[in-house]
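seq as requested:
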Amino acid sequence: MSTAYYPETDGQSERTIQTLDDMLHACVIDFGKGWAKQLPLAEFSYNNSYHASIKTAPYEALYGQKCRSPKIQAAQDRQKSYVDLKRKPMEFKVGDRVMVKVSPWKGVVRF
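struct tokens:
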């Protein structure tokens, strides 16, 4: 007999608990007594890792976009500013011929 309020009877909850247990165990091994300071990093890692059951990361499923940490955002902004220094604006007129890159692999390759 199983009830809805006991995670021991729910396979998905059991798997989530096992994954979190493995992550925390790795933190204890790697950081010793300072493992508690690494909990936000473990949470970030779990929330941004791909989950096959929902076919996306939990953060992306909840907010509809990929998570961008402040450090990643700063690095992307810095790289964009370097590229923008050399970028020239492109102007087209009606009737101009342009080259369009078409990839036969788009939508076919899956990793």
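The CA atoms of residues 7 and 13 lie 6 Å apart.
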